[in-house]
Amino acid sequence: MKYFYQILAISLMMVSAITSNAQCEPDFDFGEAEWGASPDPSVGDQFDTAYVDTPYADIFHVLVPTDASAIDPLFALPLDSVVLLTTVLTDTTTLEVVSLTDIGLDIVCNNLGGSPDPCTLISGAQYCASIEGTPSTAGVYQMTLQVEAFVTVFGVPVAQPYEFSGYILDVIGENTPDGISEVNTTQWNVYPNPATDQFSITGLPSMGTLIISDLSGRIMSDYELRNVPANGVFDAYDWSNGMYVVHVVSDGKRSTKRLLIQH
Per-residue b/e over 206-218, b at no fewer than 16 CB within 10 Å? Predict the structure, then answer.
């Protein structure tokens, strides 16, 4: 049951009551799956990094099942729809709670006209949403989604609340991100994120350097890429809880991702 609502919460990461003339297209290939979400943080996927004063847009796709048993066989009840209650961002440094609007971004959802409210996702179809705007405030933010999933119990729709957190939205305070390679950023991943005692880094280039530091600049790990652990697994048993920065430099270009440690 828990995992079912986690997926539903992920599916609403990009949902809001804001409409837009230019909607995204729900065209992600989920194969034969009955449900799914992209990006998927469980396999290291995250939303693109944003930059202050630079227009930003990223797309989220979700496939909503018709029955909860597609995710949890013990919960064989019809799924009617999922609806976002609220979305909050928590600054990982100051712990200040803000909204997307507070930092210059909005969320636009497309439910294919299945409901007058474009943020109500009806079961049995794929949907998409976009996060877009021009960021005004730098920070590393954790997103928390409070959702209601409506299932049918004895013919009566019942709302099941769930709170999910884990996505990280990284907004860098640079107008022109000099030297950052978008190709490298999308090719390598850090997961799970947040991590506890271990994490993995996959898709690294063969040549260059890898540096992991805390927010004060203290270096936690420093590798030539040809010497990184063969299995790509890194230990963080003795690291303090908090945010860390993973830098990759290869072929004269730099890319950066954030890693949250929570023991």
Answer: eebbbbbeeeeee
